[in-house]
Every structure is written in structure tokens, then in C-alpha cells.
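User: Some background: our group keeps a shared notebook of sequences we're curious about, and every so often someone picks one and asks for a predicted structure to add to the entry. Today it's my turn. The entry only has the sequence so far, pasted here. Could you supply the structure so I can complete it?
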Amino acid sequence: MEEGRVIDLAKSTGSSIPQAFANSRTGKVTVESLLDHLRLSGKYGHWYEFNEAPDPQNALVTLVHEFGLNWSIFLVHYVTAMFEQIGISPRIEMSDRSVAFTLPSKK
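Assistant: Of course. Here's the predicted structure to add to the notebook entry:
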């Protein structure tokens, strides 16, 4: 699939599916309910290995996968669209096997 289509698909799904998931599980869309969606997508969907390393100032999440650069591109835009729905712009870094993003503290 060409990169433009990957990005469009990621933005479209990232701005709707996580919110529906969060609402169905908790009744509200929050940072924690969106992170829960990512945790469960990794665990049960086998999309990636989800790792979280909180510190006092930020939450650092790393999604490690074996699906190549297009999957990383998809995840970057999916995560970005997902958090934009609640007014958060994560700081994101990517490689062909991982996507890491930092969120403001969940406190």
C-alpha cells in the first residue's frame, strides 16, 4: 500500500475506533482509556509489544513490532489522530520496528 493511503487510513481509524473502544469500556475518553486501548490492541490484536515507562513528568510509551516501516508510519498517524481527539499532541519518534511517544504526566 502506498504511504499516502497508509496515512489516510491511520488518521481515519485513529480518530474513531479508539474513542468508540474507550466509551464502551469506561464511558469516557481519557488518556488512560486510550492507553488501555493501545495496551489491549498489542496484547490481543498482536499489533505490537506495548511498553510504558512513566516518570514524574511524562509517560513514555514504546510500541515494538516486526511489520516494517509502513506499519510504523500507520502507528504514528493512528496514535496522533487518537490523542488529537482529546487535545493532546504526543511527541513521537519512529523507526522501522518501533514507535515511541511521550505524553504529559497522567497525574
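Suggested note for the entry: The domain at 3-104 is CATH 3.30.1380.20 (Muramoyl-pentapeptide Carboxypeptidase; domain 2). Residues 58 and 105 are 4 Å apart (CA to CA).
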